[in-house]
Amino acid sequence: MKKTLEFRAHDGEIEDIALGPDNKVVTAGRDFQCCVWQQDQLVTGLRWHENLPGIPDKAYRYQACRDSGTFLGLGTVTGSVAIHIAFSLQRLYYVKEAHGIVVTDVAFVPESRPGRELLGGHEAALLSVAVDSRCKLHLLPTRRSLPVWLLLLLCAGLIVATILLLQLTFPGFL
């Protein structure tokens, strides 16, 4: 093996590291941060005071991380579990104290046939393991969105309403 890149990712020890798509790397450090890197450049990061206002930094720390390509799964030293969108780090799922103590690892259920059976109608499934000797399955509900036909219908209605409003405001417009 040959080292290809070296950079300072965190102040202190790195608790966990995960490889993501597009050569991105996710790190969870003892400095209370979780970071997404592209080579040696910080793409985005999470800090407790920004992610969970009102909870002091020193009370919690990211312990385990996994990046499925679409989602980032995180576990903490207090037993909490979260799922974020990988590219924006928007939080989609959070369970405070899902375990009684430190989450030692998290893993997404693979997209295999048995994995899809576990998913059911959910968008993702994350397994968490903790020092409390428990393994828990966290299911991310499928996010709702508007059907394309409804969006097109709304756009057409907006165009018709705009034309009618212009005709009423400026008689002889058409």
From TrEMBL:
Q: Does the keyword Transport apply?
A: yes
Taking the record's annotation, the residue ranges forming a coiled coil are: none
Q: Which UniProt keywords apply?
A: Endoplasmic reticulum, ER-Golgi transport, Membrane, Protein transport, Repeat, Transmembrane, Transmembrane helix, Transport, WD repeat
One Gene Ontology term of the biological-process aspect is: protein transport
Protein name, per record: PREB protein
Pfam families of this UniProt entry? WD40
Kindly indicate whether the keyword Membrane belongs to this entry: yes
Where, per UniProt, does this protein localize? Endoplasmic reticulum membrane
InterPro entries found in the cross-reference section: Sec12-like, WD40/YVTN_repeat-like_dom_sf, WD40_repeat_dom_sf, WD40_rpt
Q: What taxonomic classification does the UniProt entry list for its organism? A: Eukaryota, Metazoa, Chordata, Craniata, Vertebrata
Q: What is a GO molecular function of this protein?
A: guanyl-nucleotide exchange factor activity
| GO-annotated cellular components | endoplasmic reticulum membrane
Q: Which gene name does the record give?
A: Preb
Q: What membrane topology does the UniProt entry give?
A: Single-pass membrane protein
Give the chief site where it resides.
endoplasmic reticulum
Which parts of the chain span the membrane according to its record?
146-170
